[in-house]
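Postdoc handover notes: sequence design on the structure in folder B. Input tokens:
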């Protein structure tokens, strides 16, 4: 008992050695100042001992303060910093009440604003991450696809150009928030021609809220183009030249005029790229079209030449203080000349076949995207947006093949015809309004109508005329898709620390074929589904917050995935679609934690019927290998992502992103079910140095670990890049030198048939060497701003107010 009393006495003595500091903050208008930062500073060495934030009543309390002499420092956005006089906490005075502290408002007038520190390369965005691509020295002279490949969690297949996000391939790409309803190949071709100098940032949205389209089980990638808001007439000009194994060149000219109620902007972009690739494959297959079990060695050398021209222009007109309307048009022309030399040996039990071919192709693509919008602000808290958009894409890609191989379905001389036209109309209306101080409502309607016309086929040159090869090698397909969507979200903020946002999006889709040469490609599908989303956010401090969310998404197979093409690959295989593909439904549960500029998240996702691309399957022609997409049964993913920016010194910035976790999937279309689980991850890094006032250096790169897809395994690979920048005196612009893949590590290995036996008993190893493996790609760029640089915009439009709030 004595020991217990002695312990209790000691505990009380210890408690009495700690004190408490409290107070209340208000503004000059008497209203409480919430979410202000209160720091308790030691008066002897100026060290911060404790720090807290004020609650929704402006009150704060700092407990467990040791005896000593202290002072308070209070900071809050929009107010002048406040400092208290020194005060003492000791045995005689255990608490200090600062009373009611009235903060003085800072000046709200904005003069010329000079931002002397860049945004982090990677930072938090609503539903994911935002990559500020212009903060990287590697952006100048690169295409958007190349910049995207360096983004955290993004993987791009060097052969198929399929884009994956956090280990999942079901990702949709948006341009300025507008969904590009194109196939993965078409999207990659467009982005590979588009210069990155015209891009402001790339948003990687793994769990977007209900106001976004539900398409994309892996999420959305939103590519945001630049739009200047500086008053007056101004612009930029950028030109790049480089060389790898072939010459490179790009140019970008932008012109903006902001004055009064009218803003005009326009740009022209050009990109030229002579590239190179080497494909080496070997293994065994049981291929009926050339006599059964065969061992082969194959190599293919490609020397494509791509040219791109892009035009972008638009206007914004402020008709009144409440009404703004505008329009935009984007048009691009892309040409890709293919030049491939292929050689191979096919070793049969009784003979050896030699394959030597020359494949040439000319691909011409045209992309048109006009749009108009209207914004009506009924009040400061109520706004209506109406958008009308149109997309048109036409691609014609004929191919000629000349070979010595005649022991298959294909003649020594053949051609591949491919012509696709896609037209998309979109109408969208969004409303946002503040119901009361704590509750905000957002709601909208959207309709999308898509028409595609595709014809493709492989023809042999026989007796002086072109004839179809046979069943399953040609198609002429017309399709229609209608998607109607409606969404509503409610955002409730009961206090300054908590926020709850809940909503749902309902989408109804009808996919159908107008006609087809093949009856099996007839499609008539209807799907109506509700996609809920819930986000709960808890602010832990002025810089830290915790968020828990649940979302559902869908990946609809494109018409190209379903059946719209047949194209030649090699003497024993063709690429085609799969009319039996089902959409993928995904459930996402995510926990995210933000600590200043650091971001951490843990995402669990469950995919039902995930779509796997390029699987080895049988088809209409017996013995011919069909490479087509297929549905797995399910896939589970547990993904950890960490974004950590570090500043060791004022001249040195570091940014590291880790994305990785556990993946497991089940496939039933093999002879025996395949259940595979594995760990994979990727690491992205950027090191930026400013050794002198006008010089910058960047070292960046990424590593992707080995991963599995279907019945294949891909090895890991790492790329390291280096960039230098020199700012010229007297506003003379800047020079940038970039070296992509300085260690020539663009080697990609994969193996097919590692997990189970497919229909052709495949055991194939593929080795692809990209251009930079032969020689690092070196580019020199010059960029300069020109025109007026006014201190402020003459009118106070919504965009200006948003920028002021951000500042």
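Designed sequence:
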């Amino acid at each position: 008992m004595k020991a217990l009393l002695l312990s209790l006495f000691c505990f009380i003595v210890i408690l009495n050695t700690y004190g408490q500091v409290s107070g209340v903050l208000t503004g000059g208008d008497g209203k409480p100042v919430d979410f202000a930062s209160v720091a308790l500073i030691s008066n002897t060495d100026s060290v911060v001992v404790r720090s807290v934030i004020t609650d929704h009543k402006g009150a704060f309390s700092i407990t467990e303060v040791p005896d000593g002499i202290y002072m308070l420092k209070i900071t809050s956005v929009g107010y002048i910093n406040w400092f208290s006089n020194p005060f003492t906490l000791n045995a005689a005075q255990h608490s200090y009440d600062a009373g009611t502290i009235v903060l003085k408002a800072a000046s709200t007038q904005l003069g010329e604003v000079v931002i002397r520190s860049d945004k982090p390369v990677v930072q938090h965005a609503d539903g994911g991450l935002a990559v500020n691509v212009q903060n990287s020295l590697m952006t100048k002279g690169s295409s958007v696809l190349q910049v995207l490949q360096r983004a955290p969690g993004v993987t791009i297949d060097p052969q198929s150009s399929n884009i994956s996000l956090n280990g999942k391939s079901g990702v949709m790409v948006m341009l300025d928030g507008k969904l590009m309803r194109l196939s993965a190949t078409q999207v990659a071709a467009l982005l590979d021609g588009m210069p990155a100098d015209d891009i402001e940032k790339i948003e990687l949205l793994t769990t977007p809220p209900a106001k976004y389209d539900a398409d994309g089980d892996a999420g959305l990638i939103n590519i945001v183009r630049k739009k200047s808001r500086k008053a007056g007439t101004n612009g930029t000009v950028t030109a790049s030249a480089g060389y790898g194994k072939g010459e490179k060149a790009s140019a970008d000219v932008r012109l903006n005029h902001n004055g009064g109620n009218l803003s005009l902007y326009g740009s022209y972009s050009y990109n030229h790229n002579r590239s190179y690739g080497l494909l080496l494959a070997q293994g065994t297959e049981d291929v009926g079209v050339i006599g059964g079990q065969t061992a082969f060695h194959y190599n293919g050398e490609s020397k494509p030449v791509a040219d791109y021209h892009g035009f972008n222009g638009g206007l914004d007109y402020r008709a009144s203080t409440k009404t703004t309307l505008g329009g935009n048009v984007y048009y691009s022309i892309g040409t890709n000349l293919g030049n491939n030399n292929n050689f191979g040996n096919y070793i049969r039990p009784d003979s050896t076949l030699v394959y030597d071919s020359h494949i040439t192709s000319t691909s011409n693509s045209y992309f048109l995207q006009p749009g108009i919008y209207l914004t009506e602000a009924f009040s400061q808290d109520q706004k209506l947006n109406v958008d009308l958009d149109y997309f048109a894409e036409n691609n014609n890609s004929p191919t000629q093949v000349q070979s010595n191989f005649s022991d298959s379905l294909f003649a020594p001389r053949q051609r591949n015809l491919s012509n696709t036209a896609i037209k998309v109309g979109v109408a969208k209306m969004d409303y946002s309004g503040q119901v009361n101080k704590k509750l905000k409502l957002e709601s909208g309607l959207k309709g999308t109508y898509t028409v595609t016309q595709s014809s493709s086929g492989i023809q042999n040159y026989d007796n002086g005329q072109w004839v179809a090869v046979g069943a399953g090698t040609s198609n002429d397909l017309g399709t229609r898709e209608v998607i109607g969507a409606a969404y509503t979200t409610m955002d409730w903020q009961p206090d300054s620390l908590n926020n709850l946002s809940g909503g749902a999006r309902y989408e109804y889709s009808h996919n159908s074929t107008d006609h087809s040469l093949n009856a099996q490609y007839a499609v008539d599908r209807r799907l109506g589904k509700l996609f809920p989303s819930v986000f709960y956010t808890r602010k832990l401090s002025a810089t830290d917050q915790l968020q828990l969310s649940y979302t559902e998404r869908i990946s609809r197979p494109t018409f190209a995935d379903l059946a719209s093409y047949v194209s030649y690959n090699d003497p024993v295989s063709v690429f085609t679609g799969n009319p039996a593909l089902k959409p993928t439904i995904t459930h996402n549960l995510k926990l995210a934690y933000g600590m200043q500029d650091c971001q951490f998240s843990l995402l669990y996702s469950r995919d039902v019927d995930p779509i796997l691309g390029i699987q080895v399957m049988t088809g209409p022609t017996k013995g011919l290998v069909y490479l087509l997409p297929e549905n797995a049964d399910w896939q589970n993913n547990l993904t950890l992502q960490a974004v950590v920016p570090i500043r060791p010194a004022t001249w040195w910035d570091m940014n590291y992103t880790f994305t990785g976790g556990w993946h497991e999937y089940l496939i039933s279309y093999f002879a025996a079910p395949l259940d595979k689980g594995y760990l994979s991850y990727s690491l992205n890094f950027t090191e930026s140095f400013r050794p002198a006032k006008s010089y910058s250096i960047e070292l960046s790169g990424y590593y992707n670990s080995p991963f599995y897809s279907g019945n294949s395994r891909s090895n890991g690979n790492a790329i390291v890049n280096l960039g230098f920048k020199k700012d010229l005196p007297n506003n003379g612009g800047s020079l940038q030198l970039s070296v992509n893949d300085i260690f020539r590590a663009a080697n990609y290995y994969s193996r097919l048939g590692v997990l189970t036996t497919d229909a052709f008993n495949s055991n194939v190893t593929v080795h692809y060497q990209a251009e930079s493996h032969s020689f690092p790609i070196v580019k020199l760029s010059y960029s300069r701003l020109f025109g007026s640089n006014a201190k402020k915009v003459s009118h106070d439009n919504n965009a200006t107010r948003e920028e002021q709030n951000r500042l």
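Context for whoever picks this up: The chain is about 5% helix and 60% strand. Don't rerun without checking with the PI first.
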